[in-house]
């Protein structure tokens, strides 16, 4: 219920410092544009980088665009080496936005489990599997979860 | 330059041999630079000597709010105990008053003495927007254009990342802190961020001079020039211009959001960083968090004529005030930076050594570091170490 929510204003520098020392103290953060830019990259750095960070841009009337926030990586494009996690999890956000929660949960679980098991990982996460192999593994898990 | 001697001294403790070598290098550069450049920022010859009478210096002390008063009282206690030839002129600034008389008095006192040590003066959100931040007013009136913070990993403090050694130079007078906002249409506020060529050149010069004097290899400018093409673009351009005069130092630039990401994943890659005001605020807080928190890092504000020392992250620490649990390290180290500035190097090293020993070896950590020590226990330990060094001390 709305009454149970607590809101506390926090200055940006204090928040960045708190984020570095104990990020678990934070739950949901809302802020203007520039601070959001800085804090979202800072948090991405805390959880493993832009290769695994999803995002969504929500507008009026439910219009939304979901995207990964990493660059185009022209040096590895077309070589089946990229980590699809960021874009995949952005897709999961999209499914939730559309109300398709079951599908979203399945794909997210499959993706997280694959990463947790560490057997099939792309290069940026420390493995040497291809993008297609990583994807196939996730698909296999989705099937098992069905 | 006002800064170099003060900032050098931490490295002297960490590595005394290297620090001494740098000290000699500084003297050589001092003369070389003066002869090469007409418009030099190395104005250590031009800065009026700090207030000194009978061999004793007078320093303005502004207690501020929150934990400021208690931390500064510990500094006074340690100074008195160690027989440091410094007298403090205490000036109180009441943050609850709208009138600017208090802060004007403080500014006048600092103009008179040349040097100050201060706690943070609270800027209450409930006061009208026309009331400017007292700390900001102090910085701009005295033109303390360079805020310098040295973040180093300390051996006795547990942190996720090790081997951090970053110097942050933050432009201190303009940028997003120009306090120029207006509401032409109700519900639409415009805020002006001011970037000037002269201030950008000045801070870039400062950064490169400091880097050279400290023997640093690389200066990184932090900006958001892809979005603020004119503002941050100008800042970046000025940094590039200054960099061309220092071929021995590598210059690169990084966008601020990427910078924070890199700082939390690989902070060891950074050496010296220079940036406008707001990014400086954010980056210094991130770095303070990386090396162990706001209780550990001292900060200094330098202008052409004045220097003001305080804790780097400028907290009032209201939640821990009056409970004897605040960490006195940052304020004590700031007072040591001040002693270096006054050329009282022996006293600076004595106190600094004692502070770092207490933290690294005796492990009397305060609550912010995960320990159970009280402020007074830490201060007592520091004074005991000072006494054990055999120099003249008062009674505990």
From TrEMBL, chain A:
Keywords: Oxidoreductase, Tricarboxylic acid cycle. SMART domains: Iso_dh. Residues 1-18 have a biased composition (Low complexity). It holds the Pfam family Iso_dh. One of its GO terms (biological process) is tricarboxylic acid cycle. Belongs to the isocitrate and isopropylmalate dehydrogenases family. Residues 1-138 form the Isopropylmalate dehydrogenase-like domain. It catalyses: D-threo-isocitrate + NAD(+) = 2-oxoglutarate + CO2 + NADH. This is Isocitrate dehydrogenase [NAD] subunit alpha, mitochondrial. GO terms for cellular component: mitochondrion. Its EC number is 1.1.1.41. Catalytic subunit of the enzyme which catalyzes the decarboxylation of isocitrate (ICT) into alpha-ketoglutarate. The heterodimer composed of the alpha (IDH3A) and beta (IDH3B) subunits and the heterodimer composed of the alpha (IDH3A) and gamma (IDH3G) subunits, have considerable basal activity but the full activity of the heterotetramer (containing two subunits of IDH3A, one of IDH3B and one of IDH3G) requires the assembly and cooperative function of both heterodimers. The keyword Isomerase does not apply. GO terms for molecular function: isocitrate dehydrogenase (NAD+) activity; magnesium ion binding; NAD binding. Transmembrane segments: none annotated. It comes from Xiphophorus maculatus (Southern platyfish).
UniProtKB/TrEMBL annotation, chain B:
Heterooligomer of subunits alpha (IDH3A), beta (IDH3B), and gamma (IDH3G) in the apparent ratio of 2:1:1. The heterodimer containing one IDH3A and one IDH3B subunit and the heterodimer containing one IDH3A and one IDH3G subunit assemble into a heterotetramer (which contains two subunits of IDH3A, one of IDH3B and one of IDH3G) and further into the heterooctamer. Keywords: ATP-binding, Magnesium, Manganese, Metal-binding, Mitochondrion, Nucleotide-binding, Transit peptide, Tricarboxylic acid cycle. NCBIfam families: mito_nad_idh. Belongs to the isocitrate and isopropylmalate dehydrogenases family. The keyword GTP-binding does not apply. This is Isocitrate dehydrogenase [NAD] subunit, mitochondrial. Transmembrane segments: none annotated. It is found in: Mitochondrion. Regulatory subunit which plays a role in the allosteric regulation of the enzyme catalyzing the decarboxylation of isocitrate (ICT) into alpha-ketoglutarate. The heterodimer composed of the alpha (IDH3A) and beta (IDH3B) subunits and the heterodimer composed of the alpha (IDH3A) and gamma (IDH3G) subunits, have considerable basal activity but the full activity of the heterotetramer (containing two subunits of IDH3A, one of IDH3B and one of IDH3G) requires the assembly and cooperative function of both heterodimers. GO terms for cellular component: mitochondrion. Pfam families: Iso_dh. One of its GO terms (molecular function) is NAD binding. Signal peptide: none annotated. One of its GO terms (biological process) is tricarboxylic acid cycle. PROSITE patterns: IDH_IMDH. Residues 58-382 form the Isopropylmalate dehydrogenase-like domain. Its cofactor is Mg(2+); Mn(2+).
């Amino acid at each position: 219920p709305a009454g149970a929510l607590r809101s506390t204003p926090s200055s940006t520098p204090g928040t960045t410092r708190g984020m570095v020392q104990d990020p678990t103290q934070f739950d949901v953060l809302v802020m203007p544009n520039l601070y959001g830019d800085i804090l979202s990259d800072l948090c991405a750095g805390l959880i493993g980088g832009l290769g695994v960070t999803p995002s969504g841009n929500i507008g009026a009337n439910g219009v939304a665009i979901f995207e990964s926030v990493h660059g185009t990586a022209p040096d590895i494009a077309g070589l089946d080496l990229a980590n699809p996690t960021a874009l995949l999890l952005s897709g999961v956000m999209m499914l939730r936005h559309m109300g398709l929660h079951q599908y979203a949960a399945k794909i997210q679980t499959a993706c997280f489990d694959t990463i947790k098991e560490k057997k099939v990982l792309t290069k940026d996460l420390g493995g040497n599997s291809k993008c297609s192999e990583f994807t196939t593994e996730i698909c296999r898990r989705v099937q098992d979860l069905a | 330059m006002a800064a170099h001697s003060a900032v050098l001294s931490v490295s002297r403790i960490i590595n005394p041999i290297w620090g001494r070598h740098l000290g000699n290098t500084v003297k050589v550069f001092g003369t070389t630079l003066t002869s090469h450049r007409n418009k030099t920022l190395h104005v250590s010859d031009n800065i009026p000597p700090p207030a000194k009478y009978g061999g004793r210096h007078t320093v303005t002390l502004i207690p501020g709010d929150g934990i400021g008063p208690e931390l500064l009282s510990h500094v006074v206690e340690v100074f008195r105990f160690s027989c440091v030839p410094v007298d403090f002129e205490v000036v109180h600034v009441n943050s609850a008053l709208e009138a600017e008389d208090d802060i004007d008095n403080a500014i006048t006192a600092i103009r008179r003495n040349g040097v100050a040590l201060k706690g943070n003066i609270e800027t209450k959100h409930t006061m009208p927007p026309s009331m400017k931040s007292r700390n900001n007013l102090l910085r701009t009136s005295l033109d303390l254009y360079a805020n310098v913070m040295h973040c180093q990993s300390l051996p006795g403090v547990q942190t996720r990342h090790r081997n951090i050694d970053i110097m942050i130079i933050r432009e201190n007078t303009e940028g997003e802190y120009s306090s120029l906002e207006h509401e032409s249409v109700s519900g639409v506020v415009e805020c002006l961020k001011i970037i000037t060529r002269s201030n950008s050149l000045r801070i870039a010069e400062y950064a490169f001079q400091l880097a050279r004097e400290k023997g640093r290899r690389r200066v990184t400018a932090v900006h958001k020039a892809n979005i603020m093409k004119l503002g941050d673009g100008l800042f970046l351009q000025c940094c590039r211009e200054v960099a061309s005069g220092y071929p021995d130092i590598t210059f690169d630039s990084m966008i601020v959001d990427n910078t924070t990401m890199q700082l939390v994943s690989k902070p060891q890659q950074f050496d010296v960083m220079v940036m406008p005001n707001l990014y400086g605020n954010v980056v210094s807080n991130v770095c303070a968090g990386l090396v162990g928190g706001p209780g550990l890092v001292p900060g200094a504000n330098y202008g052409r004529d004045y220097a003001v020392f305080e804790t780097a992250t400028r907290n009032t620490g209201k939640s821990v005030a009056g409970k004897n649990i605040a960490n006195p390290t940052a304020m004590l180290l700031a007072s040591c930076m001040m002693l270096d500035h006054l050329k009282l190097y022996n006293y600076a090293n004595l106190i600094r050594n004692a502070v770092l020993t207490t933290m690294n070896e005796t492990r009397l950590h305060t609550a912010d570091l995960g320990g159970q020590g009280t402020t007074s226990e830490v201060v007592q330990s520091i004074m005991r170490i000072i006494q054990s060094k055999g120099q003249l001390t008062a009674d505990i």
